[in-house]
Amino acid sequence: MNFSLSLRLFLFSFLAFGMTFSQSFEALKYRTVGPSRGGRVTTVTGVASLPGTFYLGASGGGVWKSEDYGTTWNNISDGFFETPSIGAIQVAENDPNIVYVGTGSDGLRSNIISGKGMYKSIDAGKTWEHIGLKNVGQIGAVEIDPRNSNVVWVAAIGNAFKDNAERGIFKTTDGGESWEKVLFVSEKVGFSDLELLPGNPNVIYAAAWKGQRKPWTIISGGTKAEGGIYKSVNGGKDWTKLENGLPKNTIGKIDLAVSPANSSILNAVIEAPEGEQGLYKSVDQGKSFTHVSDDIRLVNRPFYYTNVELDPTNPDIIYSNANPLIKSIDGGKTWKVIQVPHGDNHDIWLNPNNPQLLIQANDGGANVSFNGGETWSTQFNQPTAELYQVEVDDQYPYWLYAGQQDNYTTIAVPSFPPTAVQQTGTAWIINTGGCETGPAVPKPGNPNIVYANCKGRFGVFNKLTGIEKSYYVGASNIYGHNPKDLKYRFQRVAPIHVSPHNPDVVYHGSQFLHKTDSDGYSWETISPDLTAFEADKQVISGSPITRDITGEEYYSTLYSIRESPLQQGLIWTGSNDGVVSITKDGGKTWQNVTPKKLPKGGRVESIAASLHDLATAYIAVDRHLLGDTKPYFYKTTDYGKNWTLLSKATNGIPSDHTARVLREDPIKPGLLYAGTEYGIYVSFNDGSSWQSFQQNLPVTPITDLKIFRGDLVLSTMGRGFWILDNITSLRDPKMPKLGGTPHLFKPDTTIRYRYPKIRAGNSFPKYPRTAVYIDYYLPEATKGVKLEILNAQKEPVTTILSDSTLLKSSVTEVEDMGLNTLFRYVSKKLKARKGLHRFEWDLRKKGPWHKTKNRRYKNGPLVAPGQYTAKLTLGDKTMTQEFEVMMDPRVKAEGMTKALFGKQQDMQDKILALLSEARQLQDRLEKEIKKLDPKEDSTTGRLEQLKAALKQLKNDKGAYPQQMLIAQISYIYNIVNGADQVIGVDVMERYDELMTDFTAIKNNVH
């Protein structure tokens, strides 16, 4: 799988401590660890003239393209789009290179990401240009005039969380250089869909929708004046409202479909009061409608679904995307469920030249079918998972845990390959209990036990059995209730927090803080209501038509919990209606310590109790569901009595990058990491100023982050998990002061990890091999950089050069003396240009000699665990830093010791030397044979002697030749290098045999 990650680097300069600092972190790269399982896809389309080409638009993962019928998907929006939320994609009929994308998905969930307008590509998605409408919010539909691809129509739903004047139907006639609003109802009413009449694109249908989201409810629909279907017959200059046969009063979300096979037929799926909802059909281009079906499946959760599509060759074949996907072959009178790889369906596109070839979108991704939906392509090839949080366990390699929105359980994926498997990526996604919302929190000291959650339902999942035990606080099903009537109010993402002082103590939040020390067998409530609990917000969600009460809209619940790692019983909580609370005595007494200047009602997304100071804590508050996108990051140093806003308009974080998570570095005080709606930021001065820390990370919400074993670990709402390996250099006091002096950063302790033998191929994700990350800074381009690795005795292990000219004075000796311990080579990855650089040393010593120069001395044994030194030389200036290579704890548990490593290394060195000498002897004999004249050698027999020796050394050509001496030496060389192990008796005996054989051959040809 080839996942394109060519991303723009956003850099900021800012004033800090009286000096200007701007540092590019381009050398520090994030890597994705998946999962490969897809997330929610809200829109799909294909290209009729290129039947294998399809596009998908994810709710938080951007635009992806497949050119092989959905076998592989590649992201094409990274580096161009300012938002990962996609609402509509259209390809021009007259030129498949022209693609328009409307951002802002139309399923108004509480985790919806705002749109940023329209984008256009003229090279089939290789590059993109923003073409306006940045403030229209969510886009429900885009249509292109089939005669002229510069004429484009956009249906703008509007801002999902507040009124805005940019709602309406927009039109461009110049390819997006300018836009005209051609239809507008009000600042509360947008448009969910539009259709052009086949054969006459001057006729347009548009569906008005009053849709908006509040933290405590969903608004979908309004009065007759606020919704309905509009029609224009003159290219949008004039509009008529269609009413004959449609719902008389309240009307909600509408989706339209016009038949390409019979342009007189217009279908509409309409959210309306009971008895009026369902499919409406017109056979006279909208003059009158007939209510064909009131099947409730057509408008299941209409704010989230509502999509109808017609077979382009037969108007009686209708598809309805909701929950489930249903199909009618009799014009909508009867319906049959079509099985798809995942539930919750959003969009479908059928190839007009072959309707059996189609693509369909749902909460699990996009899937292609060749046979009208009988079978589907996989969804395990599109890493667009929406994750609410990240937790890590303490095993090695560590695993990452989260709730994956729109999937059935919480999940875990490894940071490195933990085992050898046949199908990488997918085989390393495991279920860990709970459900899509999570969280999933592994128990410290026992990663086989996971505390999991599903919308307030607490479970204890055992990985060894795959079974989850249920210990729900209150043991009451809270679905469908008015929240004011509930004993315990749980949000869908109800927090779980394990005490840093006692792994048996677990905290869980409703409007109260609950505590267990018995894995949930019994619970103790240790707080009063810690929320604002405003009466007017305690309502049944879903108005004025469709109730929707899944817990997502339960307002006034706890959203974040943290106990201080410095003092047991000092606990902070944050609610989803903006209240911050603290107890210093384990819950006996509580204080409301909400920042006084914080606007009320926001969601306290995260709390971080300081690891360096007892009275210090950090919070991130999100108010974008209230229409306020400003980031609110705060710090207190006096237990919440006073708070300092860390996200001012002028200190580095843009004003629309809503706060998601704020964490403090566990080692370096004042080093902070902030995750926002559109990326990540770092501060070296405790939040006084910030700069982008995005690098190659795609633009997507950073929902949570952890700093663990020197890694920065992220979860995202649309692109899965990401890791930035080894952030140790950020903790160096020199990092924010880099200027005119070169600097070598101290490498972090590295665990000596052997990559398991797996069937990787082009699978996803691409895991890095083990390496020591060596960071260094050059104030200017330097001619020739030399990096040496020394062992504990300060003896050289390897030397890496940036410039091949440096080899001339040193490597000749090595080339002539293959058994010399010196090992020098040139690596293009050892950069010599100005800036911050990272070199990854693979922990390998010098390998055996080979006659082919580019294979010479490669693939040497891994160095043993121990102390090492990195020595960087720039001209006459030398810098050194010590570091440690640690034994893999799993290898240690198997019984390996320092002494056993020493014995293994001795044997490796012996066999390596024998293999090098044998290869050099072969090379010498082959060269001598070429020089000898058979006629002149008839008396001495030297030629035959050499040929006989060579035959003993090397294999004959052809299939499956007998393995001769050099192949046999190479065979045992691979044996002793493949694992950390006690060397077997057979290998030691075989080495002695081979050494004896080689000595005899060598002596015979001297």
Short account of what is shown:
This protein has 1006 residues and is mainly beta. The chain is 9% helix and 34% strand. Residues 1-21 and 809-819 have low confidence and may be disordered.
Please provide a written account of the structure.
This protein has 1006 residues and is mainly beta. The strands form 18 sheets. A six-stranded mixed sheet has the order 61-68-67-63-64-65. Helix 3 (898-931) packs antiparallel against helix 5 and helix 4 (942-953) runs antiparallel to helix 6. The chain is globular. It starts with 13 loop residues before the first strand and ends with a helix. Mean pLDDT is 94; it is low at 1-21 and 809-819.
Trace the largest sheet across and list its strands: 61-68-67-63-64-65
Stretches where pLDDT is under 50 for at least 5 consecutive residues are: 1-21, 809-819
**Count, helices:** 6
Q: Identify the overall geometry.
A: globular
Main β-sheet: number of strands, strand sense, barrel status? Answer: 6 strands, mixed
Distance between the termini: 54 Å
**Structural class, please?**
mainly beta
Rounded mean pLDDT is 94
How much of the sequence is in beta strands? Answer: 25-35%
Helicity level = under 10%
How many distinct beta strands? Answer: 68
Task: Return Rg in Å.
Answer: 33 Å
